[in-house]
Amino acid sequence: MIALGLATDTGFVKRALKVLNPKKFGNGQFDKALTMKEFSRIFRTDPVSEKLNALISEELDRQEDIKMVQLRQSQVFTEDFRNAQIEEYGHDQIP
To answer: How far apart are CA 9 and CA 17, in angstroms?
Structure first.
């Protein structure tokens, strides 16, 4: 796992092995080999998790869009206010 770039240290590998096959590695014995089937569990997708991740991502995108709209509205308001001051008081009179 370290050689593939999926882990940075052996402690993480041991924790991952326990999750992938608790019966085989749960007792602290790490001398057995991880099978390809067990290894492939890392890449499985869970439909519930995928939907939750998509929902969270959509919400974050929506919030970012709202922030951008609010920022643009405040910039337009500021520009409109400044333009109104220029029209009323002249360019040299604005603080």
So the answer is: 13
For the chain, the 3-state helix, strand and coil shares in percent, each to the nearest 5, are: 75, 0, 25
* Coil/strand/helix, residue 18: helix
Q: How far apart are CA 7 and CA 31, in angstroms?
A: 18
The H-or-E segment that residue 36 falls in is: helix 36-40
pLDDT score for 1: 67
Write down the pLDDT at residue 65.
92
pLDDT digits (tens, 9 = 90+) for 26-85: 777 777 777 777 777 767 777 777 887 788 888 989 999 999 988 888 887 788 777 777
Asked if 26 and 15 count as a contact pair (C-beta separation under 8 A), the reply is no
| Distances in whole angstroms, Cα of residue 28 to Cα of each of 18, 31, 39, 40, 95 | 8, 9, 18, 21, 73
